[in-house]
Specification:
9-stranded mixed sheet; 24% strand; 305 residues; homodimer; 4-stranded mixed sheet; alpha/beta; UDP-N-acetylmuramoyl-L-alanine:D-glutamate ligase
Amino acid sequence: MKNNDAHSLLVVGSLAFDSIETPTGKADDILGGSVSFFSYAASFFTKPRLVAAVGEDFPAEHRTMLAGRGIDLSGLSVEPGKTFRWKGRYHKNMNNRDTLEVHLNVLEHFDPKLPESFRHSSHVFLANSRPATQLKVLEQVKAPKLIMADTMDLWIREFRDELLALLPKIDGLFLNDSEAQLLTGHDNLITAGHAVRKMGPKFVVLKKGEHGAMLISQDGVFVIPAFPTETVVDPTGAGDSFAGGIMGYLASTDDQPPGRLRRAMAYGTVIASLTVEDFGLDRLKRTERKEIDDRLSWYQKMLEF
Amino acid sequence: MKNNDAHSLLVVGSLAFDSIETPTGKADDILGGSVSFFSYAASFFTKPRLVAAVGEDFPAEHRTMLAGRGIDLSGLSVEPGKTFRWKGRYHKNMNNRDTLEVHLNVLEHFDPKLPESFRHSSHVFLANSRPATQLKVLEQVKAPKLIMADTMDLWIREFRDELLALLPKIDGLFLNDSEAQLLTGHDNLITAGHAVRKMGPKFVVLKKGEHGAMLISQDGVFVIPAFPTETVVDPTGAGDSFAGGIMGYLASTDDQPPGRLRRAMAYGTVIASLTVEDFGLDRLKRTERKEIDDRLSWYQKMLEF
């Protein structure tokens, strides 16, 4: 566990109360939001620094739980009003979902301010939010080693110019397959990935859900399957915990072996596979680092032939 | 190259003339059909034995080309009438296609008769055809070591009883993801794969197209991604050449290391990735075994982390 500046990981994004219905169960008002999943996943490797806004209704127990994982909450601001709420229902195949309700609440005017102690973070993750907001975060950090960002279809469609202004300023972009196609107009994901790289990022991580992920960089293409599991209880947070596993691992090590990003993606894959086995953070809360390493080693053997 | 009975591979299925339109090109009346792709792919490893029916219009050049690959054509019967024809058009994403024309011609009354010399084949592939026809082939073989079969949505929907009679008599079944879901009613592919195993086969190979493939057996689950490629000219024959690579490799070796089936699937993946790079068999015709092994070794390295 390292948390000096050279191995520091900053995440800026949302905390939320999620209400989720799946074909087999439901959960109400559980802790969600990109930074919950990201920072919890990353906390297996490092002590992430969190920036997010919550409302006055955000209970002390969540704060205690996150702090208990070594997550630095100096950037958690309590704003007048209520915490962001999301309600969604997953389809039978668990790959698609309908958003039933969104209450932005305090997120409506979210203007992230980084504590002075966070400005020299070496690794920065800009969780999904409006690209103009992500740009404001970048103005507050000093020479990070690695900046990665997530985005979504809404920003690609409605705030394309802002997104195009962000892309040259980041090292890596997370996109799911349909977002990559929407952003570039290319159906082939490798072609789409390279087209995104021409817009600025050095590398692109394409998320394909149950079909795994693809890394497109100057070194070419790396593809890994999802960790095979029959136990999909709640897919919420899979993408953010995938990203948290990747960046947590990268922030925790100075090693630069070839394949370091690939190993990071494997860790992300394994942590995401745990996340989906229960609602919200419940499965990760029952996880110790050893289980992650055991699953990684099984996964690694599976891919040998 | 082995072709004694202990390393012999029999394939029974169709030869066809295909007319194909893709978003970027077209080809008319080219050699297609499951056994073309399967036997050509397998011919990199062994000398397959082919059983199929063609019409009087089947040209000598195709016969010469197949024989030149060491494929045993003793089971190729010329029937009165014309060869099976298929015409199809691929959608922009190359994953879906519309069948524009089907002329069964000689296939309408295809009743495969195995030459005496084929009946002791050690490995048998029943390419996609009506399950009753596949069962008739099995009545003619003596104690093969490994029987695998392919099928399609039409048989699952319309001839389910015949298919259920076939399944306990085979070792392995190839299915694509939607067929597995149709056959079992399960969305999760691992669950679906295990449900298929309860119907008879010892293992199931689930084909996910651009997302790779999955092996479900008593040893659990093995998943591999597709070989990443931007060059998809014509996906026709990908599944049959995948199967041909798998069974060709299995028939060619006595080794039983753990992971032999996984290695076979990797070979199938690599050969399928070559097949789709041009129309019909054109790309495989320009391929030598060394290119396959080079691609396999690149692929193997890609999966290391």
